[in-house]
Amino acid sequence: MPALPPAIGLGFKPAHFQDILAAPGAVGFYEVHAENYMGAGGAPHAMLARLRAEHALSIHGVGLSIGGAGALDRDHLHRLRQLVKRYQPESFSEHLAWSSHGSVWLNDLLPLPYTDETLATVCAHVDCVQEALGMRMLLENPATYVTFDSATWAETDFLAAVVRRTGCGLLLDINNVFVSATNHRFDPRAWLAAIPLHAVGEIHLAGHDTQHLPSGPLLIDSHARPVADPVWALYAEILCQTGPLPTLIEWDNDVPAFAVLLSEGARAQAVLSAAEQGHSNAA
Amino acid sequence: MRPDAPHAAQQAAFHAALWQGDPPEGLAAPTQAERMMRFSVYRNTVRNGLIRALAERFPVTQALVGVPFFRAMARAFIAIAPPRDPVLLRWGAALPGFLDRFPPVAHLPWLGDVARLERARGRAFHAADAAPVSPDALRVPDPGALRLVLHPSVALIASRYPAPGIWQAHQPGGTCRMPGTGPEQALIGRQPDLAVIVVAVDAGTHAVLSALAAGAPLGRAAAHANPTAALTLLLRHGLIIGTTTGETA
What we know:
heterodimer, A: alpha/beta, TIM Barrel, eight-stranded parallel beta barrel, two-stranded antiparallel sheet, 9 helices, globular, B: alpha+beta, Outer Surface Protein A, domain 3, three-stranded antiparallel β-sheet, 10 helices, 6 strands, 45% helix, 12% strand, elongated
């Protein structure tokens, strides 16, 4: 099974298409949101086909509602299968979250309680996706703002159990870890020490916004600014343990000039190169 | 709701609370006020995410009413016509009709048609690919019997108001010419270079194009008006993808 290169990737924005063509090899891969390429034809597919011809590709879904209580949307799964068949991405990933209820699509990643019941549901859904797409998927840890009284599993144990039972990999979003840790007052390093790092197939880095509650800060996963310093620090620590991993700079709102994304990417590349050095020295 | 309520019931309560009332029970927080503040993040991201998605698809409609009004209008629209699947690029088909009947915009009777035009552009942008025929395809012994297969991006707008002119006036680099006051028509389609075009056409050309799009043979379409302008437009923008001469469309 082909994999993403252990290099820097960027979220593809159509506004950057000409810049990307003018800078071949600037990054190791591009990532697209699956749902933006579910029209029949036109410019989106023309650009994606061109992008795919010259770069490794990650397709990142935001629509499957893997954490939803109901059955997966068969039509949506079919659309994903078509997309994966057409573009043969090196990676497909989705979120540990729910995003639709009944017949309403909410366009957001909503939290679920970690219980025996939801574990069984999520595992069944991941099995279903991997079977339909004919490939291993990566499951992304969420950024959350609430937790549930009914939860009986730690998020880390829950993720490890999904990996163990389904064979899926993890998309480790380090900004999400930091956001959730800050919001729920736990230690992000303890969280990172408790997940199966061997299963991590990709890392996401993104920026967040800060609000304040009476009990302390509340960080919002906004994808609208540079990656924060504590997230860079966690990233460097993790790569020391894992060695280089495919690393995506996510910037989806208030998207800046391509050069700004490249400079965030260069900062990540420096960490990646150091990790590579460290690993080859250790070996 | 009990904290041990099954997942489906818990999600239903969470979903209901996104739109109104108190946060759902069962959320861990030191105080009710903090529970509300935390839950409100989801309320805001769901609402703002959907409103932003709608605004991206209807930028001129938003410009015409202003952002604050558009947001309030979008909330009313989302309450009755939320997206039904994750493919948001298809969402919004019901917005033009909603605007036609939305009392707060009754004084802007052309607003629904502007939204119709924007919707047609969005559909054209994502329509299936199809290569145009060469102009030679129209050089046949009996052109009157010829039926045209138009590109799947083609849409026709006929407004009782100058909606196409109003839309054009809001385009970057567009002329500052004042829109007219009477009915206007437009052809929308996507060229082989993937650019989506909006071309103003007169009522006769619109009638010919509508007949051709409905599968009428050229001879019958020409009963509405001289078809030269319609055919020239279709050929120039690469919008004819096939021809047939059979009796049935």
